[in-house]
Amino acid sequence: MVTAIASQKPQPGKAKEAEPSWLRRQAISALQFISHRACARPIYTIVVFALLASTTYVGLLEHSLFDTVRDPQKAAGRVDTDTFLQGSRVLRLGESTAWKWQADDVCMPEDTAQRLALTTFIFPDATAPTVDEVSIPADISAHSVPLNLYPPSSLNSSSLAYTVPLDQVSEFLKAVQEIPDFSADEEEDVSRRWIMSAARGSADKSDLAFNLWLTDAWSSLLDLIQHTETIDISIMTLGYIAMYLTFVSLFFSMRRLGSQFWLATAVLFSGSLAFMFGLVVTTKLDVPINFRLLSEGLPFLAVTVGFEKPIMFTRAVLNGRSLRGAAHQPLSTQDAITSAIKDQGWEIVQHYGIEIGLLAMGASSGVQGGLQQFCFLAAWILFFDCALLFTFYTAVLCVKLEITRIKRHVDFRKAMEEDGVTRSVAENVASGSGKANASIFGQKAKSSSVRRFKILMVGGLILVNLLNLWAIPSRNSGHFALLSRFSTVKSASVDPFNTLDTVYMLARSQNQETVVTVVPPITYKLEESPLSSLALEANSFDGEYADQLLGAISGNRVLESLLKSVDDPTISKWIIAALVLSIILNGHLFNAASWTAKEPKPVPAKRTEPVAAPKVYPKFEPDQNSKRTLEDCELVLKEKRAPTLTDEELIHLSLRGKLPGHALEKSLEDENLMSRVDALTRAIKIRRAVVSRSPNTSAITNSLETSKLPYVGYNYNLVQGACCENVIGYMPLPVGVAGPLNIDGQDYYIPMATTEGTLVASTSRGAKAINAGGGAVTVLTADGMTRGPCVSFPTLARAAAAKNWIDSEEGRSIMTAAFNTTSRFGRLQTLKTALAGTYLYIRFKTTTGDAMGMNMISKGCEKALAALSECGFPDMVVISLSGNYCTDKKPAAINWIDGRGKSVVAEAIIPGDIVKNVLRTDVDAMVELNISKNLIGSAMAGSIGGFNAHAANILTAIFLATGQDPAQNVESSNCITTMKNRNGDLQIAVSMPSIEVGTVGGGTILEPQGAMLELLGIRGSHPTTPGDNARQLARIIAAAVLAAELNLCAALAAGHLVKAHMAHNRGGAK
């Protein structure tokens, strides 16, 4: 039923992929067109399919599942005998079978055998009607036969059995669909009657139809269980368990792709729609489908087909969104969907095609017992599932991705604002950073185990059908071989085959060839109704009048179904849920739109084209021939037309003090004349000239104007108001990559900006040795940035009272609540207090998301201190928001002991032969050197956190490359290196308790530094778990420090340090 087609991956050696076939090109083109139309108006697409689902549901209620028809006069009492006969077993008895019962699946035209139908009626209590109370029309030759019960003591129901000529069975079943119950007390004002479960039609009230169907279905299921062998029940139970596990696996798979709930729910809803559409088509084509068939086949269909195709398509779309277009911008959602269809569409259609083909073969096989009908239904379900994947599900995916993009954009921007970046710069950076994080895709599941499991499930489905076919001849009762296949688990329920003894005796005595169709047992239910309501029921006009009224109003079956769906209890709940979902979705989109609308824009640009293109500015050159006096230039400056002045005029005004150097950028910006980057670059050029010609410093600064410090070709939009003031250029630094280094199972190239030779090479050599031992393992033990304000009180008693209140549960909860209101990412973790006279120092430790977070914490501390003042301490005076109890950018034991930022431990085990062959030393020498140098030597020097060889070297190089604050290398470089001889192997670890890093804000917004974070796959804020990107950067730094520590200690132990530095550092000085 399912096929596993391996994905074709391009081979590295192939220069050019094979040209796709004509059929593939046409299929992909059609799928792209359909999905584009669905995504152009995704909300409309979803609403249209919701309406189709509603009308389909109503149609199934009226014409398929409940066996109701439009004509109310014909609806009451209609029995679907074809459904009963479909689940029957045909047996032959006569001389041709040596007077033994045998299965007879072939009907010969010249066959003269007597054809009977054996029907069994089950009444669920002891007051069942007798044979005399059952009214049978005179023109029907029905005969009662005794029913042998085994064991009779265990039965809770009564039964009747009849033999009827096969051509009269339909009329017989219609005649006995209702049997009066004469056991009722005459004094009771009620009428009782036995109702055949399958005889419920539209005569029942419409608002009870669904409940009645569920009741009948449940009863049918119980009967089915009673008449099913234990092995069949076991297989079906395993099938249902596997189906539910498949649903759970779907949610886990979508969660690994970044969706907690919505996409998995959309896949299940799409499958439900496909099932309803397939069921409608199947029933319209007069293919009989019953509850038993659905209950047996659907679990195997759900498990064998599975949800790999939606997951594959979703992963391809997300991968497409992570790519960059020609303009180095992330692909739009529709472009990503188009790209995904191009990459995976043909393979998905192939999967569907092969599965539908196999099902079509099963549908045309002629195998009885329901397999043929179910294969027909399943083929249609898969057809509609394929269509819905590229329409309905694609529309849902489009909406989900757009909401996620907007939310991530806003989160990224607000995180930078909380870190102190101006709104305009934060918006520019957030707009240019849209790359999806590869970590949200999760790990690729191995397909081999899934494929084996599916083969087992297909085998289970085939086994169930084979057992059903084998069940007939293997039974025994009296002369008929009805011995149970598993006698130890023989059911005590009514078995229709037990009545065949009477048929056998009659046929043998008459020497008559007989073919018996054994109809599955039919259950009756006892219903009561007041006698006073019988007249009203006869005159009820609800069904007929409502149908006529709806037909007159609508004149259209779709509109009629829509109108009826409102009155349906189930549909009405779906409509309410859809309205609530619509309100939530529209509210979310409205908020997203308002977030964008509130952003300040420098100059509102007029949109003349649907697709915005970058504005092209003509090259602006001030009039160099104008002869303006100083007064004229000052007038132009006052009129805010400074960009029209020449460079020399601007330099002259600045030197005269009329144009301050810090105001050059603001004065020269004019959107009508030049771009903002050009204006900022011009301001830098003028500032360089002013600094060079300043009378007080020109003796030493006169070279700046023509110096080799570059200033052209840099995006100063990101610098202005965020990273630097009085800019005169930018400082290029060589950037190298060390590695690759395997960190927690993932390989990374480590970017390092440095001017120290051998540093990158040293780290790479250490990485090579670590990789040979299986890679580095990291553990993050703590994550919390600190700020330690200093407050003062009039007396020591007041300071101590404040300290005790802060340390109490009440004080901690109040200050935590106040702190947490200032940021969506900052969450207060702990408060540590210390007294020094009347001064109280409070160390706040908080989470900061993916930002380093100093500005974020400062705002929270101000709010928390205000709450402290309002809670009985109005005499408190804030001396400094930072009282050096943090401690920031200074060596301090508190950071070494309590940690600050990210606390990480990295470890690696280097095999002894690698130490000898790669590092050119031995394990014992390494361990002794580490003890004597890093531990004892540092202790002798009174070091705080400096128990390492050169952790600051690597950390600072990575800081410069990734836009971190270089000054924070003081506390971030706290590190202790430990080594052990572990059975001849070297076990090395570094513990770094205070790595202060972020992937949002600060220097990370600059394009080169952002590119290096992108190289590590951690640029910006994490899309699903805020803080994960910054924590991963800390792990990478610790692992890189581990590699550098390993190599330097090995070089010192082997005596190679000076030789290596002379070779690398002096190589260019020849």
Task: Give an account of the 3D structure.
With 1070 residues, this protein is of the alpha+beta class. The chain has 5 domains: 194 residues, Multidrug efflux transporter AcrB transmembrane fold (Up-down Bundle), CATH 1.20.1640; 133 residues, no CATH class; 117 residues, HMGR, N-terminal domain, CATH 1.10.3270.10; 218 residues, 3-hydroxy-3-methylglutaryl-coenzyme A Reductase, Chain A, domain 2; 92 residues, 2-Layer Sandwich (Alpha-Beta Plaits). Helix content is 49%, strand content 13%. It has 37 helices and 20 strands. The strands form 3 sheets. Strands 1, 2, 3, 4, 5, 6, 7, 8 and 9 form a 9-stranded mixed β-sheet that branches. Strands 12, 13, 14, 15, 16, 17, 18, 19 and 20 form a 9-stranded mixed β-sheet that branches. A two-stranded antiparallel sheet has the order 10-11. Strand 19 and strand 20 form a beta hairpin. The radius of gyration is 41 Å and the shape is elongated.
**CATH class group of the largest domain:** Alpha Beta
Number of helices: 37
Helix content: 40-55%
Low-confidence stretches: 1-16, 64-77, 149-156, 200-208, 324-328, 434-450, 471-494, 532-570, 592-611
State the major sheet: 9 strands, mixed
In whole angstroms, the N-to-C terminal distance is 74 Å
Supply the CATH architecture of the largest domain: Alpha-Beta Complex
| CATH H-tier superfamily of the largest domain | 3-hydroxy-3-methylglutaryl-coenzyme A Reductase, Chain A, domain 2
Q: Average pLDDT value? A: 76
What is the global morphology?
Answer: elongated
Whole-angstrom Rg: 41 Å
